[in-house]
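Retry 2 of 3 after timeout on previous attempt. Resubmitting structure tokens to design endpoint.
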């Protein structure tokens, strides 16, 4: 019996062992097809010019598997199913889906976005897709600018951006303009916005050639402009100039000629009408008056004193622009020169401007990029005193002649100045030289993190001069003139770190930096009287100097800042952006040298929600 039980026990154990081996074999056979269904995929992401796109997001659709391209545009994904579909996205480029179909290597080319929602918008110390904006920003591209054929930046923006009001100071050639973004925001401290040209804050943009502009971004609300702190109360206008595009060197030459004339003339009485009304006045009042016609045959009293024909003219504008640009794998360049000449519609008024620019970028290594932006402008403006000249046109007696019998200009008669004589004989002008230089370096630690440093400087020299000759004086007047010179310069250093990353549908960015800037302004003015001759209008010809009006002064101030920005979005559906700026200014009160300027904004793209699917045929995008 014992042997029988022992045999039965051994057979049971052997049966259990066979079951265990069978289960293991079944499990191994189940694992073999599973292992065969996963692959490791590598590849590159480039643009249409075969340049690597650094930081592009690549992930397997419907999974948590994803990666970001490195400095050479390469990526690698593991444990992918053979039938996986890849989703590739990059700012400024159209999102693309690619079916793997069992491949282990793919090369993906992204195309630049044609949908305006995918356009990149500069927001200050970085950029963001227009689709992901949470603030109020208007963008004007170079195509829109060139369609307007502008002569200056104010012409380029006129009517191009909602909420932006541009008013010119006068119609004089070369005259500037005032820009108001959503009305007037401050009182007594300037109402013009802050201008930022290639990351250089500026107070004057009249020197910029519109043909050199790539894009203009207008930051309208506090949430968008707060990254610039105390100087952004009136809004911010960010200007980006052109750079070279990869390909063969490109040469562009453009010549434009246009004409202008006065749009509307106010009616003036004719000599006969004035004589008639003058006689009626004499008859009704009995007043002999100083304009009674004593000698009707004297040539001076038998002219046509309507000075519109002499004072106003059809003026011409000539503009020539030349640019050379291009790029290779290592560097890009953009060189330009421009000449602009405008004769004003008022005689003896004109404006000339010479501009030159050089933008260059050099890729020293895979991680380091350096570059420079240089600009120089010289302008010469001659004009008139609009309030005096235009006002005096209605004071001249209509039948007084403008020229005497010898053809000389009639000037002061009975205390009244001829408008034409004032426009032709006065000297009133401004000469200005402006130059700016930016040197920058950008170092990429990896595809997510980069550091940028900017060092820039700006200099402006302005000379204003004026001279009033003796022919425009009454019996008690003095010849007078002045010469005013202004020298201004500033320097700026900015350093900031940027971290941008996308993990599947989650995209976030962080930016942290500091800025230091200092300004120096010097002004000197000399005013003189009683010139010995009208032929020499410089101050060495003056006999008397007005001590109370002669002065020189110097002003210095500085600004130090720390700033931070963070953004996050999920599927571009739920958006958040926050800015912090901490400014310390020598212009602030001594007990409040530092100011804190935070902002936050959120957005919700409800058009991407499932409950809005019914609106897809007619609604492309809707966001709160």
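Retry 2 succeeded. Sequence:
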């Amino acid at each position: 019996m014992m042997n029988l039980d022992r045999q039965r026990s051994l057979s049971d154990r052997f049966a259990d062992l066979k079951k265990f081996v069978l289960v293991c074999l079944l499990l191994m056979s189940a694992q073999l097809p599973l292992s065969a269904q996963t692959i490791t995929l590598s590849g590159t992401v480039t643009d249409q010019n075969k340049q690597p796109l650094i930081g592009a997001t690549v992930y397997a659709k419907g999974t948590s598997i994803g990666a970001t391209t490195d400095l050479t545009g390469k990526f690698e994904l593991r444990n992918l199913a053979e039938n996986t579909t890849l989703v590739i996205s990059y700012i400024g480029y159209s999102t693309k889906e690619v079916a793997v179909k069992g491949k282990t290597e793919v090369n993906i080319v992204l195309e630049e976005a044609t949908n305006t929602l995918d356009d990149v918008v500069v927001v200050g110390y970085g950029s963001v897709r227009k689709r992901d904006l949470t603030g109020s920003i208007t963008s004007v591209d170079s195509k829109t600018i060139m369609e307007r054929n502008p002569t200056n930046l104010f012409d380029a923006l006129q009517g191009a951006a909602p909420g932006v009001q541009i008013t010119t100071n006068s119609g004089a050639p070369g005259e500037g303009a005032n820009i108001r973004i959503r009305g007037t925001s401050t009182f007594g401290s300037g109402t013009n916005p802050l201008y930022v040209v290639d990351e250089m804050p500026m107070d004057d943009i009249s020197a910029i050639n519109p043909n050199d502009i790539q894009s203009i971004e207008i930051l309208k609300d506090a949430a968008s402009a707060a990254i610039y702190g105390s100087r952004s109360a009136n809004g911010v206008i960010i200007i980006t100039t052109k750079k070279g595009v990869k390909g063969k060197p490109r040469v562009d030459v453009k010549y434009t000629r246009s004409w202008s004339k006065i749009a509307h003339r106010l009616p003036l009485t004719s000599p006969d009408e004035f004589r008639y009304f003058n006689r009626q006045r004499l008859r009704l009042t009995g007043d002999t008056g100083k304009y009674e016609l004593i000698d009707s045959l004297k040539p001076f009293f038998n002219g046509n004193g309507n000075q519109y024909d002499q004072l106003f003219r059809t003026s011409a504008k000539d503009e020539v622009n030349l640019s050379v640009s291009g790029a290779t794998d290592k560097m890009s360049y953009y060189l330009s020169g421009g000449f602009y000449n405008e004769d004003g519609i008022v005689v003896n008024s004109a404006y000339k401007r010479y501009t030159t620019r050089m933008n260059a970028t050099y890729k020293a290594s895979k991680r380091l990029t350096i570059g420079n932006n240089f600009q120089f402008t010289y302008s010469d403006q001659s004009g008139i005193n609009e309030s005096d000249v235009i006002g005096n046109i209605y004071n001249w007696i209509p039948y007084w002649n403008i020229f005497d019998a010898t053809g000389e200009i009639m000037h002061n008669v009975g205390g009244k100045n001829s408008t034409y004589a004032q426009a032709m004989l006065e000297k009133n002008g401004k000469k200005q030289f402006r130059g700016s230089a930016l040197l920058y370096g950008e170092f990429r630690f990896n595809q997510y993190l980069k550091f940028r440093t900017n060092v820039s400087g700006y200099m402006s020299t302005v000379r204003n001069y004026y001279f009033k000759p003796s022919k425009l004086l009454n019996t008690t007047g003095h010849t007078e003139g002045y010469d005013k010179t202004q020298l201004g310069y500033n320097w700026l250093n900015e350093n900031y770190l940027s971290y941008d990353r996308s993990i599947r549908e989650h995209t976030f960015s962080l930016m942290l930096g500091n800025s230091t800037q200092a300004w120096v302004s010097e002004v000197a003015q000399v005013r003189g009287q009683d010139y010995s001759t009208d032929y020499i209008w410089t101050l060495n010809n003056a006999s008397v100097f007005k001590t109370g009006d002669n002065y020189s002064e110097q002003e210095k101030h500085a600004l130090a800042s720390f700033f931070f920005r963070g953004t996050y979005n999920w599927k571009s559906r739920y958006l958040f952006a926050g800015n912090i700026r901490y400014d310390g200014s020598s212009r602030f009160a001594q007990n409040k040298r530092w100011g804190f300027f935070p902002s936050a904004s959120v957005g919700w793209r409800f058009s991407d929600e499932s409950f809005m699917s019914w609106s897809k045929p007619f609604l492309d995008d809707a966001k709160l």
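Attempt log closed. Helices lie at 2-36, 142-147, 153-157, 222-225, 271-285, 308-311, 386-392, 419-425.
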